[in-house]
Structure formats: C-alpha cells, structure tokens
Amino acid sequence: MKGITLSFVLVASLATVANGQAPVKTPILALPPTPMLTGSSEDNKSPRVAEDLSPDYSTKLPECDRIEVCLLAGDVQHGTAADRFPIPPHYGTSRIMKRKDLKGAEASKLCSLWRGLTFDIQHPVFGHLADYGLRFYRADKLVFETSVSFSCHNFYYPRTAFPSMPGSYSWHGFRTYDDAGKALFAFLNATLPSKSNQPKS
Prior knowledge:
- It contains 3 helices and 7 strands; from the N terminus they run H-E-E-E-H-E-E-E-E-H.
- With 201 residues, it is α+β, with helices and mostly antiparallel strands.
- It folds into 2 domains: 1-30; 51-191, no CATH class.
- The protein is 21% helix and 24% strand.
- A 7-stranded antiparallel β-sheet has the order 2-3-1-4-5-6-7, with helices on one face.
C-alpha cells in the first residue's frame, strides 16, 4: 500500500512540473526508530525468573555451613569418576582440577553472593563451559549442587515444576556483568583462580 502511495505522489509531482507548476513536495515518511546497541540486552530488559526455579536454589538459598568449590576444566564427558563433577543437563561430567571446602564466614559470604545474583532467564543460553562446580551443604546434607559458567552466563538447577519427572534439570541465566555477577566471580576466583576472564561491563 505504501508503494502505491509513493508511486502516485511521484507521478503527480512529475505531472505538475510538466505543466509548469511548482512541484508538489513529497511527504516524508516516518520510519520506526532503529534500536541502538548501547551494550548487552541485559541493560534494557527487566530480569525474569523461570517458574520452575525454586527460590531455595536462588534468592532464598538456605544458610549453609559448608560449601565445596570445585575448579572445573570445562570439558564434558561421560563417566562418574570421583575426579569429575556432574553436568546433568549434558548427561556428562567435567574434570575437577582443584577443590576447596569453605566453612564459617566464607561459606556464609558465598551464600549471600549467590542470593544477590540477578537471575535472568532472558539471558540467552548458548552453551555451558563450566568454570566452577558448587555443592552447598547444611549439617552435612546436600542442599544444592550446580555448575557455573561465567562465559555462558548460566548454571543448572533441579526443575521443581514437574514433580512427576524426578531428576530433571534445566539451565538458567544470570547476569555476569553487573556488580553482583562480578562480585561472585571475584570471590570464586580468589578461592580457586580460574583461567576465565573477569566479566566486563
């Protein structure tokens, strides 16, 4: 329809010029604004959390008295050896390069940093190159186990919206470039130095 309108205006303009009249001024069409790329999509969208991500694994993670931090190689292979960390969504494991137990104030600090993350399912999940494996314990009971990728901005979690499917896992995004994401990386990197780059703004 717009093409027909423009053709009509052009023909009318040429006709008036041929008759010695002043040319008709062609109207300027308003085009939709082009979005500017001023940073990542994180900056322009409100965070949204998946319905099946329990607050117990995110913003309301229980206080834990021991956390096992594992520095991972980022590979994914089949096997259940003691020196490998499970990556359930990939049906595989990643090699554990180093591990360290955090207790007391250090464990409490890591719990607080985890709760403070910006959990955002809108962050695209392109893959999962695991940097760290985390096991949260309370009174020697495993509360939550996950692997974290800062380059892919995600972690895995047990799905709770489908109780008829036990053992089901999914990925969830989190913002690595805001202050909370950088603080978590800095803490884990100080605990077990990683080859991953510091998240940038």
